Amino acid sequence: MTHLPELLAAVAAAGDPGPFALVRREGADHLELFTGAVRAVPRLADIPLPDGASGPRTLALVPFRQVAERGFACVDDDTPLECLEIDRHERVALSDALAALPDVPVRTADAAFDVDDDTYAATVGRVLAEEIGRGEGANFVIHRCLRATVEGPPLVAALAALRRLLLRERGAYWTFVVHTGTRILVGASPERHVSVGDGLVMMNPISGTFRHTGADADRDALLRFLADPKEVEELYMVLDEELKMMATVAEHGGQVVGPYLKEMSHLAHTEYLLAGRGTRDVREVLRETMFAPTVTGSPMENACRVIARHEHTGRRYYAGVLALLGRDDDGRQTLDAPILIRTAEISPTGGLRVPVGATLVRHSTPAGEVAETHAKAAGVLAALGLGPQAPASGARPPVRLAEDPEVRAALAARNAPLARFWLDQRDPDAPGLPGLAGRRVLIVDGEDTFTGMLAHQLGALGLAVTLRPWQAAGPVTGFDLVVVGPGPGDPGSPTAPKMAAMRDLLAGLLAEGRPTLAVCLGHQLLCGLLGLALHRRDAPYQGLQREVEMFGARRRVGFYSSFTARADADRLATPYGPVEVARDGADGAVHALRGRGFAGVQFHPESVLSPDGLAVLADLLTGLLPPAAGRLPATTGAAERA
Known about the structure:
- With about 650 residues, the chain is an alpha+beta fold.
- The protein has two domains: about 5-415, Anthranilate synthase (4-Layer Sandwich), CATH 3.60.120; about 430-640, Class I glutamine amidotransferase (GATase) domain (Rossmann fold, 3-Layer(aba) Sandwich), CATH 3.40.50.
- It contains 15 helices and 29 strands.
- The strands form three sheets. It has an 18-stranded antiparallel β-sheet that branches. A nine-stranded mixed β-sheet has the order 25-26-27-28-22-21-19-20-29, with helices on both faces. Strands 23-24 form a two-stranded antiparallel sheet.
- Helix 3 crosses helix 9, helix 5 (about 220-225) runs parallel beside helix 10 and helix 6 crosses helix 12 (about 450-460).
- This is anthranilate synthase.
- Its EC number is 4.1.3.27.
- GO terms for molecular function: anthranilate synthase activity.
- It catalyses: chorismate + L-glutamine = anthranilate + pyruvate + L-glutamate + H(+).
- It is an enzyme of class 4 (lyase).
């Protein structure tokens, strides 16, 4: 017998049941009941995870403002990082929970979005033109919040909403109520952010939203959705962004599994799973993965700046995570952290907040993204009595479109153009290329953690890699190669400190004749030093895959850029000697170049969109790093950070 009846009796009597959480995890035939004391801590590193018996130890409510721990921008709303220190953990059969939870209507008043449709649409238009169009990133998530007032006891309303979610929602990763005494969170999150168990780190990028009406889901409409370039590219971009995170928290990066179709009551999403081995403290894993690109954008650091520019209120817990920390039977740390989306926050006085957001990419339209925010709110609104109800489980069997052969084939086809480096299982002990194994390379990061993925690819080729942020001064001596990496921003800016610093670095490398590879932003700055004019594209190349001619070979690669250099000839005389150019035959856009001791590529060879990326790197590095006698051996593989 659990003490759920006692807890619910206290709620019904308008008493204080104390802090608790009721959680159903994906596929479980039971709920977990956690009770204990709640305390706030300032940092993720302070989340308690004591030694001792196996099982869950702490449930942390991580607000979006914690992203400041990484030095990223945010609108600081003072929302606390609260921790439920679990002193009692019980399992409740799903049937028992449904019988015990209150089955009452939830009444609300004064429901409205805090940002109206026209204002939100105007913000979407500005982000598309001023941020994506000017090279600040590939995609951004801008949120809005539905507000209302719950009539009657808020905790009763939340528990009744949980019952409805358990009955009517499907496909959720976590379905939950969390009551801390100062706030209530209730929701059905579709998305695992990150989990750690048995040394395996997993992430779950989800993107693309297909709206349907439950049992009447339209198979043909779904197939059209799966073929929609906007939806396909949106998923690829968040896949790349979470691979960047996996490059940091997993020893050999992440392996891609999928894609799959996640079906819910009103929506279906496309998703991948990422997996890799890691040994970091789970609180460090949480910190290094703040927060999912599906609720922020990419590249992550600049996405946070864009959000802060265009959202004028804090996000509270939206886009943060619930994080369940514990230990397994061998004493190893465990973590299970769903993203806080499709979640309502209710105050003790009945104030209701349902935040939702839309992912803006180059194909987005303001009207389409307004509609997406309404659709994403539908599941939570229905549970709270603010919208049409989905059919209850068993009332009408839902259509399982994921099992349809044509749907499965359409999903499988999405992997055909992707880089096998990230899809296939890799041998971390495989030897590198002759002539490259043991060579030392420094990657200078221009605020885009694509550099982490690049480090794993260079490690697979046999090089020993050191990562250094652009603003960290340090010598370049002792390295066989310097890679000046990607990042957001306008490469033509005469005053931006980052551009000036990276431009000076490149000028010094060229003057000294040090082997240099420049990628994306680095390539643009290199082109400027070589005397080529830079141009902002009319249509951004953000998340775009193209086949390009490159020094006698056709290469399929992925672009994330709004700027490009142009050249009117295949060979140029420059202050640093003759340069060979691989350019677009139509507009002269420079896709790659190489000279004596240096090379640059506008695309991202490390991207999952670059199936020929590893071959490109191997070709360029073989030319940049001719065999050298008397080299000292070095450990290959994982990147060091300078």
